[in-house]
Amino acid sequence: MDCRVVVEAAVPVYDVETVDEAIRIAISKTGEMLNPDLKYVEISMGARTSPGGEELQPAFIAADEALVALELEMTVFNVEQEEHASRIARKEIGQRLENIPLKVLSVERVDDESVETDGEGDTRAETGASDADETLVDFDDLVDDH
Questions:
Q1: N- or C-end of the chain: fewer Cβ atoms within 10 A?
Q2: Measured between alpha carbons, how far is 56 from 3 in angstroms, rounded to an integer?
Q3: Where is the composition biased (Acidic residues) (predicted)?
Q4: What 3-state class would DSSP assign to 109?
């Protein structure tokens, strides 16, 4: 089974004045930390709400420093269950984003229609790697279940 995992990250950004600037810098900073190993991870702004349900901006700025909520999406291949996929995504992303808190927001099974083969029998997600010569890691080899 293949799963699409969405992980929320709280990315600190320094010396910023506006929310837009903080978001741009946070996305750039996160992309640099993930590349080239995890360039198939999609980075987008996170959605935040107040306890009363009011929509909030994805960044909080105080004293020219910001904490930006980002959502990171990746497809995990060949897993036994959704919990296994979430642990793999947290581990792979967390290894590259040191000192950045992560929280798994959702895990969805990927339908067979959204997965294609690259001509050599390897499965690739539509939103995964785009280069023909890029190979995706079989995450079962990386995680040791106890």
A1: C
A2: 29
A3: 111-120, 131-146
A4: strand
